[in-house]
Design a protein that fits this description.
Blueprint: H1 5-17, H2 23-43, H3 58-75, H4 81-97, H5 100-107, H6 116-129, H7 134-137, H8 140-153, H9 163-179, H10 181-190, H11 193-205
Helix pairs in contact: 1-2, 1-3, 2-4, 3-4, 3-5, 6-9, 8-10, 8-11, 9-10
């Protein structure tokens, strides 16, 4: 039952197992997450919006996504083809099963913590999701958080992202801008100058 706190607690060691160095542990963790996602769909038949999540469980779902998705993205870099394939299948399962607003809410705050190659995978994943997230991005605080994180990802704090990351990140910015241009334009203007410069440079380069 997704309303049971014990279920969410049981998933914590499963998520930890996704990054285990032992192949058997990783494979079992992926299998457990697969079963969990199948049950999520059963208990939340209306998952096209966040109202499909049982009452009071939004925080638990976001916490789970926030811990699980970065590990799955990391597994896309795994040297074992079947682990990469299983992780990719699970990411698609998250995308089609869980409300995109909940996914964006969970993953945006963590994107700066990830290695460049993982950030690239995350931005490409979000490209498919953000067109359905106007509810998230029209809230100024959420847009400000997203833009601040993306400015950091794209070099606004002195880092040097890869060309591939810059390309996918720029496409993501363009997509979010199309969702709510007025809010995004205003929030960019409120960012510190180095972050503004980083984002504006990406927009100009794409024109």
């Amino acid at each position: 039952d997704l309303s049971s706190p014990e279920l969410w607690e049981l998933m914590d060691p499963v998520v930890v197992g996704l990054s285990d160095v032992q192949h058997k542990v990783t494979a079992e963790a992926l299998a457990c997450v697969t079963l969990f996602m199948e049950q999520f769909h059963v208990f939340c038949p209306d998952t096209s919006t966040s109202t499909g999540v049982p009452g009071g469980q939004h925080a638990s779902v976001v916490r789970f996504i926030s811990s699980c998705l970065p590990e799955l993205f990391q597994r896309l870099l795994d040297q074992r083809p079947h682990i990469r394939g299983h992780a990719n299948t699970l990411l698609n399962s998250f995308r089609v099963t869980i409300d995109p607003v909940l996914i964006v809410t969970a993953i945006v705050p963590r994107i700066t913590e990830m290695p460049d190659k993982v950030k690239t995978a995350v931005t490409q994943f979000l490209l498919v999701i953000v067109p359905h997230c106007a509810q998230y991005f029209t809230t100024p605080a959420h847009s400000a958080l997203f833009l601040g994180r993306m400015a950091t990802v794209l070099g606004g704090t002195g880092t040097k992202p890869s060309i591939t990351l810059v390309q996918s990140g720029t496409k993501l910015l363009e997509m979010v801008y199309k969702v709510c241009p007025q809010v995004i334009a205003l929030q960019i203007a409120l960012l510190p100058q180095p972050q503004q410069h980083s984002l504006k440079k990406c927009f100009l380069a794409s024109m």
